Amino acid sequence: MSAEAIAAAAGEGDGGLGAPPALIWPERGSVFAERQMRLRQLAPGHAMDDFLLFMAELAQVQHAALQAYAEVPLPDAAALERAQQAGLPPLPAADWPRDAAWRVSLRSMVQALRRVDMPEGMRAALDAAGRLSDDALERQADCLLTGVMHGVDLATAPLVAAALQVHWTQLALGLHARGWRPRPGAASAAPAGRPLAPADAGSCPCCGSRPTASLTRSTGRASGQRVLQCSLCSVQWPLPRIQCAHCMATEPVYYQSLELAQAGADESAGRAAQAVVQAECCSDCGHYLKIMHRDRDAFVDAVADDLATLTLDLLVSEAGMQRHGVNLMLLFGEPEPASQASREGR
Ligand SMILES: [Zn+2]
Ligand SMILES: [Zn+2]
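Above: the input record for the complex with zinc ion. Below: its predicted structure, written as tokens.
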């Protein structure tokens, strides 16, 4: 049984009709390993095959790093309680003090990648990442984790981000091991407009980051539910289907897929309805988030399939839509103004 099947069968967090399903925690042994396999599956014949294969190598070293990660400090019981009371995530991406373990891990990931065959441009990025000082790495991390793109070195960003992903996944696993779970209703104590509150279903209850994409999940009782996958700590949290992850509106949501754009008018409806990856677009706020259907392809991975469907981003951005999802492996597009990013805490 998969983790979600077990969670569903156990009724964890499924406290009766209408209760939201529990968080789905990443699994140490598979979260990056399965991404690596998916990237290798998607690469052959893809226009970005070299990039996807490099990302597969990166996921491979992320997997190795997570298997033997150093013990890192976690919030104590009092800090967890304070965060719950304030409606704040316990491991906020922007504020949680980063243990030096993440830099140690990054440097060993870079060393491991040096042994891999790869295009020259990617090797240059590896060399550059290997030369960054502790201070420079911390500054890059600050930029990536606060969503302030000014000052981000785009060449080394995927490597820095990969190490941060492993670090926050380790933190999330530690929180899970302590039995932490967001307390329903705790956010109501938060000041109005507090953006990182767990009540804000569009950001991660664990670290406050935006999702990469949403995934439908089908388990016996939980057919057709969907979860959003955190771009940083790999936790998945529930959001009702057909709801904008940016503004929470429901009515103005519609779906766009590449199949719809490419197929003839007569065959388009059927093929679009079968698309594994769609853009869930909101005409209210003008944002979209990709939705990936596991019931149509069981091997879907939020990060991998997002990277492999960039043409879908081009399609919907031509229509003026803004991306809600964040993929730390590929930062692109016009960043939000820094003032807004910091105000929203994203
Ligand atoms: Zn998170
Ligand atoms: Zn919206």
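Notes for the reader.
Residues 28-189 form a domain with the FdhE-like fold fold (CATH 3.90.1670.10).
The pocket of zinc ion (ligand 2) is lined by residues 244, 246-247, 249, 282, 284-285, 287 (CB under 6 Å).
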